[in-house]
Amino acid sequence: MPPPGNEYAAEQLKTSGNKSFKDGDYDAAEALYSQAIQKHSANPLLFTNRANARLKLEKWEGVIDDCIRSIELLKDNMKAFFLLAQAQIAINHPNEALSSALMAYELCTTSAQQTSNAATISALVVRCKKAKWDIRERERLRRRGDLLAELETMLETQCKKDVDEIDSHIESGSTSRTDGQEEKADRKIDFEKKRDDLRTAFEISDPAHQQKREVPDYLVDGITFEIMHDPVVTKNGRSYERATLIEHLKRSPTDPLTRETLTVGELRPNIALKDACEEFMGQNKGWVYDW
């Protein structure tokens, strides 16, 4: 434990840091929080405060270091996980960011730590999940493009080989130029047909014609972060997957994101959204189950 005087000094520095942060002077806030940490390094809140200032300054590695230190001091540290996820997504580490964001969401929705930040954290989870999916999509399209290009190159190489052989026969006199020209035209027509058939096969196997595959935010459940199948709408207009919301209400009779009082009897089917979900699932069979 730090001497009482140091703990008091740290609190005073923290208060000054909070004022600088509120005023938008994030450099000063970071410096004041750093001084406070020197006085009382066992206080996990000082590290999250500095992490928040560093987040504004886009000092991503510093944010990550502070959050990890804060979590070491306080395991169930919702704010640290929330800030950590934002820094991790900023440096393009979506897998780690998603894990951190999900932990923050879990902590903020437990009965002990229910907060008004649930909607914000939920949006961050979806953002991280989309970033993780985007990386998989880019890799898929890259591989897809490489495979198609490789197969087309093989067809082109074979066509060129056939044409060169025909030219050789023409030069040697074993094939007339007229016959040779007709043969070369036939080879090129055959190549173009095979190439077009190949491209069609790739397009059929991918309904989006190799375009980026995305899930609209409004189809995603705010509790499980999966595509909804049987959405219900609450009295405040928010929609959730019926089964997961009912399970939540068994534990806490409140809206998961707004914290308003909510009961099962107040839920209504969201027919339009259900139709949209079914249409989307029907048009994108296969890959959506990996989202």
UniProtKB/TrEMBL annotation:
Segment Disordered: which positions? Answer: 166-188
Q: Which GO terms describe its biological process?
A: cellular response to misfolded protein; positive regulation of proteolysis; proteasome-mediated ubiquitin-dependent protein catabolic process; protein polyubiquitination; protein quality control for misfolded or incompletely synthesized proteins
The molecular function terms of the Gene Ontology recorded here are: peptidyl-prolyl cis-trans isomerase activity; protein-folding chaperone binding; ubiquitin protein ligase activity
Q: Which Pfam families match?
A: U-box
Q: Which residues fall in a compositionally biased region of kind Basic and acidic residues?
A: 179-188
Q: Which reaction does it catalyse?
A: S-ubiquitinyl-[E2 ubiquitin-conjugating enzyme]-L-cysteine + [acceptor protein]-L-lysine = [E2 ubiquitin-conjugating enzyme]-L-cysteine + N(6)-ubiquitinyl-[acceptor protein]-L-lysine
Positions of the U-box domain: 214-287
Which Gene3D superfamilies does its entry note? Tetratricopeptide repeat domain, Zinc/RING finger domain, C3HC4 (zinc finger)
Signal peptide range equals none
Provide one Gene Ontology cellular component: cytoplasm
Which SUPFAM superfamilies does the record match to this protein? RING/U-box, TPR-like
Q: What are the record keywords, sorted?
A: Isomerase, Repeat, Rotamase, Transferase, Ubl conjugation pathway
What name does the UniProt record give this protein?
U-box-domain-containing protein
